[in-house]
Amino acid sequence: MLIIGIKGNKMNKEIILEFLSFHKEELKQKFKIEKIGVFGSILKKDTPNDIDFYVEFKEKNFDNVVGLLEYLENNLHYKIDIFYPHKLTNKKVLEHIKKEVIYG
């Protein structure tokens, strides 16, 4: 298992994308994910306050969402925000995220 990130150390999109690539199959199987990517401040600067993930689930349920959140926070040692289509009721916000997101 690749464990990276220690709060306060440099974190950037390359590190996150490497993490997602390395863990892709595990994330898909464990949390029933179709696609996962990053957007927001992690794309613009190093060491953001939090990391925003956009996720499309094959099976979106409480266990998969919370399990993924805990998995990412425990492995990346950062505050994580997860956004997914069912959570985003504002279509303009969803369109903006989909244009910006980089998938791992």
UniProtKB/TrEMBL annotation:
Keyword ATP-binding annotated: yes
Cofactor: Mg(2+)
Origin: domain of life: Bacteria
Polymerase beta nucleotidyltransferase domain boundaries: 24-102
Keyword entries, A-Z: ATP-binding, Magnesium, Metal-binding, Nucleotide-binding, Nucleotidyltransferase, Transferase
Keyword Transferase: yes
Transmembrane segments: none
Pfam families: Polbeta (PF18765)
Molecular functions per Gene Ontology: ATP binding; metal ion binding; nucleotidyltransferase activity
Name assigned to this protein: Polymerase beta nucleotidyltransferase domain-containing protein
